[in-house]
Amino acid sequence: MPRLIFPLLLCSFLIACTATPVSDYALGHDFSQYKTFTFVIPPESAVVSIDSKRIEDETAAQLKVKGLSQTQPQSADLQINYRLEMTTELESNGGTFGFGIGLGRAGIGMSTPSSYNENQYNKLVIEFINPASKSIIWRSISQNKLTDTMSAQQRNDFIVKEIALMLSDYPPQTKQP
Predict the structure, then answer these.
(1) Is residue 175 domain-resident?
(2) DSSP string, 39-103
(3) Strand-strand pairing, 135-141 and 115-130
(4) How many structural domains comprise the chain?
């Protein structure tokens, strides 16, 4: 029994460190009406990235499990738009040191400057659009960081895991009062 405590605590800690995606949806909307989907067609001049292919493949696989089927754009009940949003985060490096002297009402002080690194990463955003009303009915934003330094396998694993998390609450369950 004592041998199991450490691995269980470690697993619990790792699961707790995973950031949950933020989702939003149109209240009162009937999501059961959607049976088919398509991806928003990018402009002809747009280059389809490797990540775009990964995102489309995994999103389609997750939605098929939920009973939706992919179809041609003109006959789809639901359009799916996705993007990778570049986000910047400032990270403080090390501490600072300051000192000063004063006499009566006057004084002077000095300190070492703060050092910051600017880190850039991507957040995955998935939006479901009702083609009839041209309005977003559901959106999910990943809170985990997709960085440029990830290997191809790490990027693929990240996208698979994030899309599974993001689509875990689709269709949204409306709570009864």
Answers:
(1) no
(2) EPPPPTTPPPPHHHHHHHHHHHHHHHHTT-EE--GGG-SEEEEEEEEEEEEEEEES---EEEEEE
(3) antiparallel
(4) 1
> Above 70 in pLDDT, residue 11?
no
Residue 79's CATH number: 3.30.160.670
pTM: 0.75
Please report the pLDDT score of residue 119 as a whole number: 85
In a domain, 107, yes or no: no
Kindly list the distances between the CA atom of residue 55 and the CA atoms of 30, 75, 90, 99, in Å, as whole numbers in the listed order. 25, 22, 28, 53
User: Residue 92 in contact with residue 114, Cβ under 8 Å?
Assistant: yes
Separation of alpha carbons 37 and 18, rounded Å: 29
- 164 Cβ partners below 8 Å, 6+ apart? 58, 62
Range of the domain at 80: 22-93+116-169
Percentage of the residues of the chain whose pLDDT score is greater than 70: 85
Torsion of CA 53, 54, 60, 65, to 10 degrees: 160
Mean pLDDT in residue range 89-118: 81
Q: Tell me what percent of the chain is helix, strand and coil, each rounded to the nearest 5.
A: 30, 35, 35
